[in-house]
Amino acid sequence: MYAQAVLTALLAWPCVGAVALLVAPERWAKHLALAASLVEFAISVPLWWVFQPAAGMQFQLDVPWIPDWGIHYSVGVDGISLFMVLLTTFLVPLSVLGSYRYITTHQRAFYALLLVLTSGMVGVFVSLDLFLFYVMWEVMLIPMYFIIGVWGGENRLYAAIKFFIYTFLGSLLMLVAILALVYLVAQRTGLYSFSYGHVIANIGRLGPLAFWLFGAFFLAFAIKVPMFPFHTWLPDAHVEAPTAGSVLLAGILLKMGTYGFLRFAVPFFPQVALHPAVRTGIIALALIGILYGGLVAMVQPDFKKLIAYSSVSHLGFVMLGIWALTLQSVQGALMVMINHGLSTGALFFLVGMLYERRHTRLIEAFGGLAKVVPLFAAILTLVSLSSIGLPATNGFVGEFLVLVGSFRTHPVAATIATTGVIVAAMYLLPALQRVIYNPLDKPENQGLADLSPRELAVLLPLVACIVWIGVYPTPFLRRMEPSAQRFIESVRPAPGATAAVAR
Amino acid sequence: MLLGPALFVSAALFTLGVFGVLLRRNAIVIFMCVELMLNAVNLTFVALAQRLGVAGQLFVFFVMAVAAAEAAVGLAIVLAIYRHKGTVNLQNIDLLKG
Amino acid sequence: MNVDLSALDLSRSGDLLVALAPELLLTLAALVVLLVVAWRHRTPQDLRRAGWVTLAGLGVAALATWFLWWNVARASGIAAMIAVDDFRFVADWLFLGTAALTVLVSFRYLEREELWAPEYYVLLLFATLGMTLMAGAEDLMVLFLGLELMSVSVYVLAGINRRSAPAAEAALKYFLLGAFASGFLLYGIALVYGATATTNFTLIGVQVATLGLQHDTMLLLGLGLLLVGFGFKVAAVPFHMWAPDVYDGSPTPVTGYMATAVKAAAFAALFRLLGEAFGAVPAWREIVWWLAVATMVVGNLIALAQRSFKRMLAYSSIAHAGYLLVAVAAGTAAGSAAFVFYLVAYTLMTVAAFALLAAKGTGGERDVAIDDLAGLAQRRPWLAFALAVCMLSLLGFPGTAGFIGKWYILVAAVAAGQGLLAAILVLASVISAGYYLPVIMAMYMKPEPGEQAHAGMQLGPLGNAVVAVSVAGLLFFGVRPNRLLEIARTSGASVRVAPAVSSSAPPAARDASGR
Amino acid sequence: MPGTLVIFWGFAGLALASALLCITRRSAVASALWLVVTLFALAALFVLLDAQFIAVLQVLVYAGAIMVLFLFVIMLLNLGRPGPSDVKGPLGVGTACLLGGVLLFQLWILRKAVPSAPIQLPPGSMARLQQEQGLVGAIARPLFDTYLIPFEITSLLLLAAIVGAVVLAKRKL
Amino acid sequence: MPAAALKLIWLVPALPLIGFLLNGALALWRPNAKAAVSTIGVGVLVLAFAVAAAAVTEFATLHPAAPLVFRYWEWMPVGDLRLDFALQFDQLAAVMALVVTGVGALIHLFSVGYMHKDPGYARYFAYLNLFVFFMLLLVLGASFPVMFVGWEGVGLCSYLLIGFWFNEQINADAGKKAFIVNRIGDFGFLVAMLLIFHTTGSLDFTQVFARAQAVFPPAGATVTAITLFLFLGCTGKSAQIPLFTWLPDAMQGPTPVSALIHAATMVTAGVYLVARCNVLFALAPLGSATVAGVGALTALFAATIALKQWDIKRVLAYSTISQLGYMFLGVGTGAYAAGMFHLVTHAFFKALLFLGSGSVIHAMHHAYHATHSHDDAQDMRNMGGLRRHLPWTATLMWIATLAIAGIPPLSGFFSKDEILGAAFALATAQPIWYVYWLMGVATALLTAFYMTRLMLYTFHGPNRTGDKEREHLHEPRWVMTGPLMVLGLLTLVGGALNLPELVGGGAFLHHWLEPVTALGDRMRPAVELSRGVEWALVGSAVAVAALGMFGAARLLKPAALVPARLAPPETGVGRLLWKKWYVDEIYDALIVRPVQWFAREVLWKTVDARIVDGLLVNGSATASRALGWIGSRLQTGEVGFYVVLFVVGVLLVVGGAVR
């Protein structure tokens, strides 16, 4: 019963909550939203135990939706998506709680959108039907668009439309590719179906068309990741979005790109994705992302922008891990996806808390904060360290696994990627210094209040996870291992197959 | 026997009609040129009717009805625009653009 | 009410009357309204009365259409003047529905603009009648006459506001270019007639197949000219230049009507014509391909440069014509079904958008800039929501009927091997985000310029109903399109497809009377 | 060259020449009158092409009714008086010539286009039909039989046009 | 079977961790509970030392040939990567654990006095405890990644403690510099780990070293690369060329920190690592030679800089770099026991020196504080004649100075002599080592010189502190002098730990470490020096040390010094040395600034803002808009133009149809 209903409940409950919010009084909005998101989290928590690592796709439910087109409402999770779902349900209550003071206008709408966004995000990760996936992929665009555009900063309109159009561009081309793919599979099997399982089972070899189809998928996901040079929407969107928006954007939305690669682009077109030239190119882009993101982050005057560019860097590790295609690197990539959600989410919360107090995010506006807000400083330090991958924090586990794994297939790339650890220290530590260390010379900063219990409640779960995963990631790794293994086996080219690849 | 020449003459007349529409700015004259085009088509119909059956002649009949209807409405519209603009020269009728 | 209508013999008067019942009832309604108008035409009440009678007429015609559809009416034999198939019924419904929505929106609009011309409704009915004839036409002559009936009525509707110089100009431009285009269409008909000795769609298809005419010069010339004529009516680039100006100058409900029903009628006729008569002629596909590309790209690009909401919608409707042309170019059964579905979705969103514009434009709709909608969400949340849904649907965003429609078109295009066209379509859609989103942005993300900026925005109960129905439809069909898809599919499939070219013996020469 | 052909080319020449004059005359009245000449010449061609009834209609409806309407409006708007030409400038003329030329070139192939043999009636069948059923009868029979529906539509079309013209032209709204 | 104390080995790192957590909580919520902080901070160290000592005692009775590995939980089990959170206890770890906890405990105690007035007292002890935790993890970790946790962790604590007084930017900068430079080294460590796993399929010490001989051909490229990357890590952590620049700056931290982290423990981690990986280094002669060469060069280079520094702590800092170079010379030579021996003795005497200097600075600071003077409390030019005010400190520091200068029979003499002896011995087989040996000797000379200089300027001659200030100069409290005395004692007798057989000692440490280094030792050329040569070496070493001290005493004139405020700028070679060979400036100009410039001007402002965002993203949007604008200009409103376009369309369509 639970196994069948849980994913649907996860999808439906936030929408119910959103409707309830809209009819409730404005002053209840945030509390209701918190309650709703906590319930959502509570629904998702048993997944952790009920999930059978070895069993592949589970918690499946498949109901015909538009049978004319072979479209089903089909959901399920495996070891890859499980953690994305859990991460989503985990971050949303925190985002709600973190927005308590940040969001002062149109609260009902804000929290309702946040809940709808939750639905969309969960939907993307659990969809096992290409149509459903596409719909979810697009649907969460709208709440995020509004969240940035209505509650964002100065330049929010530009950021919102840029975010929207960028993503829209990629996803529409992906839509065409999905249709073509389903059509090609239908030609082969006689069954016109958008079912993921059907497509992946019958995709076979697609010939030269595969190159274009992969290209469309690649563009959609690469924009979302974002990979260099499709990344410029990210700094704008991050900077302008309200805290909750930034947290979810970085924590979840970016992962949709890498998730897309893991679930769709690579398994569908292994002969293209793993073609030596394509593979080299993508790994090169990943490396550029790692170093470029880091170096550009280093010179950002705006703390949020810095974090945004650091995301480009972190996601580069994920891409490297996926394309290195070893068990360690793929699991490492999955871990980086989780860790980035936690660490960067926490960083955005922290910056948001600064912003609530001082209404600026410029690094130079601060200095010496450790003196007035020691607790804040301590948590910021810890989170920054996890972001730069200090061992015994979560950041290290992911990056280390990616590096260990990718070194086995791409030693040079892994070595170059390792310089990312230097770059990471180069961008985050100076920022840290300029915010919490240095003389406390700005009078505005002298009366700052330290973290309130509410803010602690937002941060401590994240901090706990940061330490937990850093010290004992085994439960995560065990749950994802069979799925990662399956992913690798499904795409690893048969011996001698690389020579006769399309194009 | 006359089909070929008739089709050619019809095409030439049609072209002249188009030419007129391209050449003139007076709404009424342009409309007359359109009538010329319709008549050119009528010639085609009639010429074809001689070889293909009486239906072609019927079409001419219908076209005449259409021409009459268009003339009625068209000239009323021309009157309307004249009331507003005091001219029927299309060069001066460009309120809507961009 | 189950009657066996599966084999109507259209050469018998009784059956012909049954087959033409919707059109006849519509004619009757028009005449009744004309009488009502002749009886009383001075006060607002008279205007409203005429409107209600019109609605009743449309309802009766729709009932008749439903009756035919429900009983699966079909004609026996092939060479009729009028098709009796689901495609016609569904298209008729669409026209009747659009006309009804337009009437509902017009009630308040006519009073507000003090247009005491109840003939408006008569012309609307005549135009709708013309459309139903176009959608049902099985013969080029019926098609041409239906088209002219519709056009003549709409020319007048465009200029019905005689106090308005832009309206007069719109009418003139529409009329002059329309007549010009009719000339080409007619010439095309003549040449097709010359090549095939018939004007019946099915027979043309048969002739093409049996005589092997797919490369016949006269036929191809005729086909080209026909495409020009239709290209004009659907506002395909480069025959689109009239559309923005005319849409801009016409009274807004009429604009909505033109952008939806008029275009839909032309498309329906074009679809039937190309499918039944020219299905075996490859030449048009490439032309339509290029028309589609040009229309999508140009429409979207120019719309991007518009500041006036109304003109933006005008260009956007050009762009949507381009999307529909993609369905035409796909030309498969899926294409026709996609086309029907898209028309429904497109009609709903466009009617609602123009209705909202009409409500907003108390000081003249032409002056409503996109930025004038700033802060609407605070003042009128439901209207803003409705408009936002329309915009998203126009954009083709999932969850709305516009998305399903676009998806269907893409499915059809991809299945027809037109992957590149599909890619161009989506890229054009991306451009369209650049002008649909600012509307949402203005409503939700910009502050209200003044305290009373949106005070005058009133739709009235009927207008609200129209918008509500449209938006509900958009959202419903966006999530649960199954029934509509089925209708679209069956109706699309009911259009006969021209037989493939064969080398069988040519038919014997027929007698001179042209039977 | 047979006699009919000579007559045909004579009237065709007249039609073309007067059409050319129609589109180039500066005065709208002159244009209209030259158009009337074209219509008459076409009527003559119709007779040559075995369409006597249509030729009569052409004279009655077109040259008679419609063109009178035109002239009437032209006079009403006082466009007959000499004034600045509405012919476009050199650029317009050039464009028109170029486009017209290309169009004519494209239509040029029509001079040799004939319907394919199987669908052509034997020569003289039109004349035979008219002898059998009478000039009017040959047209009337299919008009009220096969083409009943289009015929009825024309009535509606004219009705709509009348309503439209009235709406647009009446003095008060 | 390991007995009770060994089973509790996890307590050794865990106790400081608990101390950190408790003190950290106090720092945030009860920063003034100093008594509790002191009790916890020092208490956990003493307890940890006790546990470690007990464990070592037990271990000594067992003296197993293989290390004892304690697995606690699976850390990163992924496929064939089986990585446990495990500790390993062997002879090497035992030495390090004792040094860390023992010296650590003393320095904690010293800190109680030194930091007593500081508002960040609790935070300080929290950091210090955390440091000890990570340091113990480093030395006890059973695999490279676990060691790496400690490796980076100590770097973090170093960062936090250098920047402890963060409200002065120079301190925060120094901390940041330390971290980033260390990260460069950590890059090497990481890559080495990647290579090791790639080649041996494991990261556990026991397995890697067991498989090393089978996997790596001697002097192979891979193992050489591994050792070089590992050594890159060492240069960062242990402040060797080229990554040494952070250590002098690290003196911005509190002086006990300098004593603990930047002298006794953390900076020796590199030496420990090389000793730990002796198997790998033995397989890679080039790697070993690089270690020894870089060590020797650093030793000499840093010693030259130390000659001309005025800041008392900076002299000691460069001295530390120099002595670390010695240790690397030792372990690079293959004399792991000698290197470790020097590590231990250095821990004693350098901790003593730093704490002594801390005592001096404490006094000076106190004096200046009392008179509200803003002079530099660490500049030797402001000192002089302090032996009269700080007699205990002076005496103890003289002991340490003699030890570091290599005067027998102090501990430093034996350890240094062993390294030089080993280098000389290897030189008989590989002549390049003669160069290294000579550099070591030269360094010894300079060391004796600059240390004597330090002592002379600080404690002898006339006092330059100021007349008013002079009255406030006095010895600190017992909590500070007590640890000094213990360390002094250790410095005196530390040599007994590995008294060479030459003088009748048992070379205890050498034999103790044999199980660890045996494998590596076997792979090296066996060289033996005759007793005569050894005695000659000892004699020359003593002579060199004496020469250095004597030279300093003769050449330097403490009486001629003027206080720092009035001192003339340095010129010539002196300036070059004073400016530390301009290494920082060169790095700044060659690396730091170009990278910053590149990131800011090229990557961000040009590539990101102009090309990607400006040209491609916004450019395409602008282009679309421009095209749209042109299109809407074509919509002239004039029907004539529309018709033209219409006809053009007709021609195209008809042309397309007929074609």
Structure description:
- The complex is a heteropentamer of chains A (503), B (98), C (515), D (173) and E (659).
- With 503 residues, chain A is mostly helical.
- Chain A has a domain at 290-493.
- Helices cover 74% and strands 3% of the residues of chain A.
- Chain A contains 22 helices and two strands.
- Chain A has helices at residues 2-23, 29-44, 47-50, 79-98, 107-126, 130-139, 141-151, 156-189, 196-202, 209-224, 233-240, 243-268, 270-273, 276-298, 303-324, 327-358, 369-372, 374-387, 394-409, 411-436, 453-471, 474-491, and strands spanning 58-66, 71-77.
- Chain A has a two-stranded antiparallel sheet.
- In chain A, strand 1 and strand 2 form a beta hairpin.
- Chain B has one domain (4-90): Orthogonal Bundle (Helix Hairpins), CATH 1.10.287.
- Helix content of chain B is 80%, strand content 0%.
- Chain B has three helices and no strands.
- The radius of gyration of chain B is 16 Å and the shape is elongated.
- The N and C termini of chain B lie far apart (51 Å).
- In chain D, helix 1 runs antiparallel to helix 2 (28-48).
- With 173 residues, chain D is mostly helical.
- Chain E has 659 residues and is mainly alpha-helical.
- Chain E is globular and about 115 Å long.
- Chain E has helices at 4-7, 11-29, 34-62, 91-114, 121-140, 144-162, 169-200, 205-215, 221-237, 246-249, 255-264, 269-276, 278-283, 285-306, 312-333, 336-371, 391-405, 411-429, 432-459, 467-470, 478-493, 508-512, 514-522, 531-555, 572-578, 583-634, 639-658, and strands at residues 68-78, 81-89.
- In chain E, strand 1 (68-78) and strand 2 (81-89) form a beta hairpin.
- At the B-D interface, helix 1, helix 2 and helix 3 of B face helix 1, helix 2, helix 3, helix 4 and helix 6 of D.
Brief rundown of the structure:
The complex is a heteropentamer of chains A (503), B (98), C (515), D (173) and E (659). Chain B is built from three helices and no strands.
SSE order of chain C in H/E notation? HHHHHHHHHHHHHHHHHHHH
Model regions low in confidence, pLDDT < 50 over at least 5 residues of chain E: none
**Uncertain regions spanning at least 5 consecutive residues of chain C:** 504-509
Largest interface: B-D, 69 and 85 residues
What count of helical segments of chain C does DSSP give? Answer: 20
Shape of chain E: globular
**N-to-C span of chain E:** 96 Å
Which properties best describe this structure?
heteropentamer, D: mainly alpha, 7 helices, globular, E: 659 residues, mainly alpha, 27 helices, 2 strands
Topology at a glance:
The complex is a heteropentamer of chains A (503), B (98), C (515), D (173) and E (659).
Chain C: H1 13-19, H2 21-39, H3 44-70, H4 86-112, H5 119-136, H6 140-158, H7 165-196, H8 201-211, H9 217-233, H10 242-249, H11 252-277, H12 283-304, H13 309-330, H14 333-360, H15 376-379, H16 381-395, H17 401-415, H18 419-445, H19 460-479, H20 482-494
Helix pairs in contact in C: 2-3, 2-5, 3-4, 4-5, 4-11, 4-14, 4-19, 4-20, 5-6, 5-11, 6-7, 6-11, 7-9, 7-10, 8-11, 9-12, 10-11, 10-13, 11-13, 11-14, 12-13, 12-18, 13-14, 13-17, 13-18, 14-16, 14-17, 14-19, 14-20, 16-18, 16-19, 17-18, 17-19
Chain D: H1 3-24, H2 28-48, H3 52-76, H4 90-107, H5 125-133, H6 135-143, H7 148-169
Chain E: H1 4-7, H2 11-29, H3 34-62, E1 68-78, E2 81-89, H4 91-114, H5 121-140, H6 144-162, H7 169-200, H8 205-215, H9 221-237, H10 246-249, H11 255-264, H12 269-276, H13 278-283, H14 285-306, H15 312-333, H16 336-371, H17 391-405, H18 411-429, H19 432-459, H20 467-470, H21 478-493, H22 508-512, H23 514-522, H24 531-555, H25 572-578, H26 583-634, H27 639-658
Antiparallel strand pairs in E: 1-2
Helix pairs in contact in E: 2-3, 2-5, 3-4, 3-5, 4-5, 4-11, 4-16, 4-21, 5-6, 6-7, 6-11, 7-8, 7-9, 9-12, 9-14, 11-16, 12-15, 12-16, 14-15, 14-19, 15-16, 15-18, 15-19, 16-17, 16-18, 16-21, 17-18, 17-19, 17-21, 18-19, 18-24, 19-24
